[in-house]
C-alpha cells in the first residue's frame, strides 16, 4: 500500500459487519488498499478483536471498531449515527453447518434478525449499497440437476441445512426489499465457494473455535500437532482420485471479489438499482487428496490421514461457474490452492493458537469500552508483566514478581490530564527541548508551538503521549517472550513537524530475563526530512508498595558528563561534570527526600560522533542502574542512545507529587536539531530508518 | 356448548397467538367447545380486544388475554410463567400480501422473529405441541406444474410474495428445529386455502383495517354501503364462467381443522414426534362469479360490480387436495360457500363497522393493564354516558351533559377495598339480607357466611360486586343506543349458594332519552334451584360538582309502604308506612344534611303476589323520582321489581363519608327466601329464567 492511500480524504466509509472474522478481516485489508475507510462491527462471538488490532498495523490505518451485536438495534444505530456510512458489507452471522443442525433457532434468530435490523437502519439512514456474504450452500446439492456442474447463478436453490436456509432466507429478504423500492437499493449477493488460506503477511487468518469443520484448518491443526490425524470422508467418489471435488478459493481472492462487487455497486447508475447474485469461485475443482498433497508440500509434513466412510450430505462435485463475476465484476481468482496452503501454513506456524494467547490480557481504559483505549498486558500472570496503552504506546504498569515498579494511571483520564507528566509515554517527535521551538531543515524555517518556558518540549502540542497508536500485534514468538507492536501514523494536520512519519514501537517482554525491550523505528512516508528524537518516559519507584517516594533509591550511571545548559535549559555547547555516582564508584548516589535533584542530559561518550542508529547492529550500553535496599529490586537501563536524561521527578503533578518516581530517558541531545555537531543524529531523511532501543531490566 | 364443558377441570391450556384476529378468534370458540382452556396473546396491531371480550360471552368462559408482541421476549415469557401451557396455536403475523410487497422488512421482522421468540420460549418451557398457521401461498403458482391442481402437500413450494416467503421461512424453521431434536417436538403446519365467512352467532368475524384485500370482506363492505362497487379482476380465464377458481373454506370449518390437528398432536405418541403439513381446504373450487352470486343471494342485494383487467400474479385455479387432512386428521369441510355468505352477511349487518364503535372507549382500571380490569364507557363523548367495569359489572360513572351524577372510584383498588359500600355494583346472588345466612331449598339446609351482624348480606363472601364478569359485548344497534352485555359464571367453588348460575347483565344506554336500562337475566346451568335477588347499588348525587353531599335533594316515591324489620333488620312480616313523600304528595321529601335517614325496603304494591318476572312482558313501574334544585337534574328510577330499598348512605366509608350519595335499589323482598309468602319470587329453579329490569332516567 502507498502513503497516498493512508491520507485519502473524502474516502467512502464501508461498514463491515463481522469484520473481525476470517473473510471480513481479509476484506478490510483490501478495502483500505483500495482507498475505502472501514468501520468494523462485530459481536466477537466467534472472533477476536486482536484481528482488528492487527489489521491496523497491517494497513497502517485506524479502524474504528464497535463491539455490537446486529440484533441490538440501539447499539447498531449508534454506529450509523457516529459514522457517515456509504455502504455495507455484511459478513456477520453464525456459519457452522454442523452446529446449525444442532441449534437451528439460534442460527435463524441471529442471522436473520441481525440482517433485518441492519437493513432497517440502512433504510433509515439512507444507505443503499449492500454486499451480502452468501454461500454456495444455497444451491444445496446441485448434482441433483443434470447440467448444473459447474454451478451457474441460475441453478435453482435448495439449501439442505439450517445455515444454508438462513442464507437463502436473507437472499429472499434482499430480493423482496429491492422489489419494494427498486430505486433505493443496490444489493450484491456473493455466493462463496470454499474459502481457504490466509493473508500472506501471516498476521490474519482463520481462527476457528473448537474442532474445525473445514478441511484446511483441520489439516493445519494436525500439522501443528493440535489434532492427531486427518479424516477423509470417502475415497469412492467418481472423481480422478475418488475424493469429492470442491472449488477452493484463496481468501485474498475472495476478499478482492468484495471490492469488485462494491465498485460495481459504486459505479452502477441505473435508475432502478439492482439485486444480483454472483458466484465467487475459481471454476476449478480440486479433490480432497489434491488439497491434502498441496498442504503437505507447503508444510513439509506428511500428515497422517485416515479414509473413513462418506459423510451424510456430501456430494461428488460442487464447482462454481464464475463467468458472471468475471464478465460483470471483472473479477477472477488469481491464486492457486498451492498459494493458499503456503499462506495458511505461515499463519498456522506463526500463530499456532490463533489470536488468543495465554499470558495476554486486555482491559478497557475508558468507561465506554472504546477499543482504541485498551490497556494490554503481556506476560499476564507471570513473574514479569507489562501493561501498555494504545494512547501514547504508554507503559501503564510494570510488575516484577507481582510488584508494580512504575507510576501510572488506572485509566486514560489520568494520561489525558494536561498537567500529567508524560508518565510512561512514548515521547516524540522530539524528546526534550527545541530552543524557542524553532529549527531549520532543508533551508526552511519551522516554528513549533512554545510550550515550556520559551522552548518547545517533548514535541509540543503534537506530543506522542496523547496520540493513539494503532494495533497492537501481540505475539508469543517463543516461550517466555511476548511482543507487542504499535504503530503511530503522524501525518499532516496531526503535527507541526515536516513530513509524514510512521513510528513503530515494538515491546519485547522476556519473562525469564525480566527485561522489557522497547524498539523504536521511524521512517518518512512523505516529505524530505524531519527532526526525530524518541524516548520512553517511565517513572520508576522500586519500592512502590512500601514508600510513596524514591527516597533511599541508590543509583549509578555510566558517565557523569552532561550537557551544560543556560537559564532557559538550552545547551551552551559545553559538556560539564555532574555530581553523580558512576559505575566505577564504590558507593552509589542515594536519592534522598529532597536531594539530589537531577534533570540533566548525560552523555554516554562525549567522543562518539552522534549519528542515526541501526538498531540491528548497535550494541546496547548499560547507562544507569538503580537499586532499592528495601525491595531489593535492581533496575538496569540499557540503550543504543548517545544521551540519557536523568530526572528525579521534582515537578511531578496530576495525582502525583515531587519525587514519587525517577526517570532515565535515553535519547539524543537536547536541541540537537539546532546544533550543527548533533543535528545529524536527530534528522531523519526520506528513505532512512530511525532506530533506537531501550531496555529496562530487573533483578 | 354444554355446562359440563364450562366446568372442565384439568383442561389443557392452549396458547393462542393472534387469538384476537379473524381465524384465531374462531378457533378459540372451537377450542373451548372441545374442552380446552385458552390463553390469548395478541399485539392488537390489526385486531381488537373486543373480539376476545365477545368470545368470553360467546363461550361463557374466561379467556386470559395478554397484549404482547411476540417479538417482546420478556413480555411473552411472563405469559409462559403465568400459565401452564400445554400447546400453542400460532396465528400471530402480518398477513396482507399486497402490504407485504410494500414493507417487506416489517413482514420478515415481525413474522419470523415473533415465531422464533415463541419457539425459543416453548423450548425453554418444554412445550412441544405447536400448530402453525401457514398458507397455501407457500405453493405459489401451482399451475406452473403439469399435475398439481388440486394441490397436494407434496407440491413443490415457491411463494411469490414476501408474505408467502415469511410463511415458507417459518415452515423451514419448524422443519430444521424438528430435525435438531425430533423427540422434543410435534409440529403441525396447516396450509389454509381461502377462509371466508363468520361465526353464525354474528358476534365475531373478519374486521379488516383499510380496504379489504379479499373478495368476501370487500363484497360485504359494498353491501353495507362502505364501498361503491366490486371489482372483478378478469373474466377471461379458462374456467366455467371466465373468473378464477379458488378454494373457499368457512372459517368455522377452518377453526375445526385446528382442533383436529391439535387432537392429532395430542394423540400422537411416536418416539420421534413429527413435523407435518396439512392442507385445509374444501377440495371444491368456486369461481369469483359463483361466490358473488351466493353473496348477492345471502344479502338480498344485487351488488354493483365491474370487470377490470387481470391482476398480476393471479392464476386460473388454486384448489386444495385436502385428502391428507381427511385421512389423517379425520377432518373435512362441512359448510358451503352459501353458509359462509349467510354468516358473513349476519356479521356485516350486525357489525357494519366491525368491532370499533364511535362513542365507545375503554381504559385500564389497574396499573398492569389487565384487560379483565377494564372500564368501558358507552356513549363516550355524548350528552349521556355510562362507564362500566368488568369487576361486578359495576356502574363506575354516569355523566349527564358532562356532569357526573354517581359515586365511583378511579380504579379497581377502590372497589376491592373491603370497606367499600358496593358502590355502583351488581348485587347478587342475594341482594339485601338473609336472616342468619340460613335457608332451606329442596329440603336441604344451606348456611352462608354471616357478614352483617348476625345475617348474610348482599350475597356474603361470594358477593358479585368483587366478581369479574365476562365480556362485554358492546354494540350500537341504532343511532343513540349503545348496549354492553356482561356475563357472570357463578359456579361451584366460587359460591356458597346451590347450583351453577349464569347471570347476564345487559346495559342499554339511550343517549336521546338519557336513560340507562339494566336488564338482569339468570339461569341455572347445573343444580335444581338457587335463591336469586339481583339489583344495582348505584349511589346518586345529583349535585355532585357543587356539593359533596345529597343535601337538598328532593325525592318522591311510588309508595310509603315498607317492610317492617326487627332489631336485626329482618322482616317481622308486617308492612308499615314510612314518612316519605309519594308521587301524589304536593311536596317532596327534602334530604337534609343528617335527616331524614332511610334504609328501608319499600313495597311497590303490597297486594301483588311476588313471583318470578318475565322481563319481556313486565311493565316498568316508576318507583322513585329525585331532583336537585341547584343542578336542575331529575332522576327517575323505574323497575320491574316488587320492592325498592331507599338508602341515604349514612354508613358510606372507604373514601366516602355519610350522605355523599343515596341509593334506590329495586329488587325483591328482604330475606324472602325464608318467607313462605315471598319465597317464590327469589327462587330460581332449573329451566326457569330470572329476569328483572332497572332503568335510571335523567332529565
Automatic annotation (TrEMBL), chains A, B:
Residues 15-343 form the NAD(P)-binding domain. The keyword Cell membrane does not apply. Transmembrane segments: none annotated. Keywords: Carbohydrate metabolism, Isomerase, NAD. Pathway: Carbohydrate metabolism; galactose metabolism; Carbohydrate metabolism; hexose metabolism. The keyword NAD applies. Its cofactor is NAD(+). Mutarotase converts alpha-aldose to the beta-anomer. It is active on D-glucose, L-arabinose, D-xylose, D-galactose, maltose and lactose. This is NAD(P)-binding domain-containing protein. It comes from Saccharomyces uvarum.
